[in-house]
Amino acid sequence: MSRESAAPQTPKPYHYQRTKPSSRNKSSTRSVLQYNRKPQLAGETPRVVVITSGKGGVGKTTTTANVGLSLARHGFSVVAIDADVGLRNLDLLLGLENRVNYTVIEVLNGDCRLDQALVRDKRWSNFELLCISKPRSKLPIGFGGKALVWLVDALKDRQEGCPDFILIDCPAGIDAGFITAITPANEAVLVTTPDITSLRDADRVTGLLECDGIKDIKMIVNRVRTDLIRGEDMMSVLDVQEMLGLALLGVIPEDSEVIRSTNRGFPLVLNKPPTLAGLAFEQAAWRLVEQDSMQAVMVEEEPKKRGFFSFFGG
Ligand SMILES: Nc1ncnc2c1ncn2[C@@H]1O[C@H](COP(=O)(O)OP(=O)(O)O)[C@@H](O)[C@H]1O
Ligand SMILES: [Mg+2]
Questions:
Q1: Which residues surround ligand 2, an ion (CB under 5 A)?
Q2: What DSSP letter does each residue of 90-101 carry, written as one string?
Q3: More confident position, 35 or 242
Q4: Which residues are ATP-binding (predicted)?
């Protein structure tokens, strides 16, 4: 599948579907999530999505784990690739660290088969993890984008069938590791926090993604605090959207459950009952699946007064 065919012609900011005042209900999260139906997969498979940011520590790995497991819970087959080579930690967030015996480097060296390097999640068997290398190891000379393209092709040709989604957890920065991680992708999820340093990096990364031919870029605004936004101590999501001009995939509130779930190796979206951040990741997964064709009811109530967080009940 060519990048050009996968990307929409003109990426446009996400606009909420406004409802008439009379039809506004209590901004029910349940109506937004539409648990009673399976999201309709848009686009050709595999959808190869790189999760990137520029700045480190903004939530790429958290997003990959939670969006990935949400997709698997909706019945899509997902392979999550940890392309953060020296500092891999997706396995920890997923609680799969003890089951990673082989990595892509061993597959490329011919020391094991691809299926031996794929770690199947016991909770959702349609979710698999693939690590590029062992922790603290350095990439072999010559490892680059071509190796990842080969890997994606090999995943497409597996006997089990082509996965619906290949999510690539990108390392921070814009050097060789970043270039390698974005090479096979035909769409990107840009994770940013609403602060000026993260936004500057996100803007730079957006330019680099576009130069690489990735036109389909959506953003997740993470660690948002409504109390700070109300006191005008934090940029609002609308401000972020205006600055970056990207389609909005999701807004994730700051939530101490994220840290707790990270330490337990039990992604937030699996929590019962779900927390706000968990619901927000689920919603982002929905939008990723349905792309521009998404028909979900998103109610924005008077954005200038109440802001984006009206749908969180804020
Ligand atoms: N919405 C959130 N609320 C609270 N903590 C968060 C949130 N998102 C991420 N974190 C925390 O931020 C830290 C960095 O997240 P991580 O996903 O590893 O970032 P990255 O992969 O971009 O380096 C982790 O400790 C994680 O638990
Ligand atoms: Mg990370």
A1: 60-61
A2: HHHHTT-GGG--
A3: 242
A4: 55-62
Whether ligand 1 lies within 6 angstroms of the CB of 32 is answered as: no
Residue recorded with tokens 């619901």: 279
Q: pLDDT per residue over 44-93, tens digit each?
A: 999 999 999 989 999 999 999 999 999 999 999 999 999 988 788 999 99
Q: Over range 280-297, report the average pLDDT.
A: 78
60 is in an annotated binding site: yes
The first and second tokens of residue 45, run together, are 């498979």
User: Environment class of residue 86 by beta-carbon count within 10 Å: exposed (0-12), middle (13-18) or buried (19+)?
Assistant: middle
Distance from Cα 18 to the centre of ligand 1, integer Å: 31
**From the CB of 53, is ligand 1 less than 6 Å away?**
yes
Q: Could you tell me the pLDDT band of residue 152, with boundaries at 50, 70 and 90?
A: very high
C-alpha of residue 86 to centroid of ligand 2, in Å: 11
Q: Which atom of ligand 1 is nearest to the CA of 63?
A: 17
Which residue segments constitute the domains of the chain, with CATH numbers given?
Answer: 3-312 (3.40.50.300)
Positive or negative CA dihedral for 54, 59, 64, 70?
A: negative
Q: Does residue 78 have a known ligand-binding role?
A: no
Task: Using only the alpha carbons of the chain, give its radius of gyration.
Answer: 19
Greatest alpha-carbon pair distance for the chain in Å reads 64
Take atom 9 of ligand 1 and give the residue whose Cα is closest.
Answer: 59
- Per-residue tokens: 37: 């139906």
Nearest atom, ligand 1, residue 259 CA:
27
d(CA 289, CA 298): 16
In one-letter notation, the amino acid at residue 48 is V
